[in-house]
Every structure is written in structure tokens, then in C-alpha cells.
């Protein structure tokens, strides 16, 4: 059985009349030499040209960049890019702030954080996290208590047909209606 004929090993050093220029941060090797291609063996001459460029880039990496060995393998640290790449489109213009953004900046209003938007609050009495609003929420605390303390002065001023049991719910509903009314007023929507 005969062994297949192996291809001859190509030289590691690439010799060109004008040396390559490199931008290792972008993995770029620029060849300033004129390209001469053999029209009959176009694919082979293009492959040789690409191989020379890749070989010179690898040589440059191995001689100039620091190597470090870790548990994952050998790492090569690339330098910062030196060539500025052009943009496809111009840099976008800054948008003019809206009326609300100008007002918020003037008053020092900042958007709520993720923690402030959460619907959970810590209940000191039970020692558990509970909802701030919604089903069985903290804003409904006291509405289902069996015993309610009565203020006699407030009881005398109470409207006929209302009970102390519905006060919490009534106040909550009034706050919701007031917020909706103010929201419509802010947006300019009539009743």
C-alpha cells in the first residue's frame, strides 16, 4: 500500500517587496503590493494570496501580542484597534426633549426604579412580603376586620346610608376617580 503524496510545506515567513500594514485590533492585514493574478489558475492564485495574508497576520500575532495560558486554553490579548471604520449612515441627531422631559428635568423628577415599581411591600406585622394593590393587598388592610373602632364625631357627620365598614373602599374608589379625572385633564380629554 503506497502512502498518498503529501503537499509540499509552504514557508512560514512571507516575503513581499513592500511589507504588510497591520491593525491587529480588527484582525486586518493590508497588502500595498499590486495584485498579479494568473488568469488560467485564478482560484489557486487567489488562494495563495489569501494564504500569504493570513500567514503574515498570524506571524504578527505570535510575535507582538502577549500570550497567556489558562485552564480554558491559550489566550492571545489583542491590542486596541487603530483603524477607524466608517459608518454606513451619519450619526443621528439628538432628539429635542419633550415638554414632560423639560418639566421633569426642571423639577428634578426621575423615573421610578425597578424596586419602586414592584407590587410587593414588606408587612412588618406578619413579617411577609405582600402586594401593595390588587387581590388581598395592603391598601385594603382593615376592610375585613371584625371589630372597628368608631369615632363618635365622625359618626355624627356621616352621610345617611353609609357605614364605617365601607369607608376604606369608598376612599380608595374616590382616589381612583380623582386620578382618572386628573389624567383626563392632563391629556385634554373632556368628561
Automatic annotation (TrEMBL):
Keyword Nucleus belongs to the record: yes
InterPro entries referenced in this protein's UniProt entry, alphabetically: Ribosom_reg
Domain of life per record: Eukaryota
Broad class of the protein's primary localization: nucleus
Keywords, comma-separated and alphabetical: Nucleus, Ribosome biogenesis
Subcellular locations according to the entry: Nucleus
Gene Ontology terms: biological process: ribosome biogenesis
Gene Ontology CC: nucleus
Region entry Disordered, spans: 156-191
Compositionally biased spans, kind Basic and acidic residues: 156-183
Family: Belongs to the RRS1 family.
Chain's role: Involved in ribosomal large subunit assembly.
Protein name: Ribosome biogenesis regulatory protein
UniProt organism field: Fusarium langsethiae
Taxonomic lineage of the native organism: Eukaryota, Fungi, Dikarya, Ascomycota, Pezizomycotina
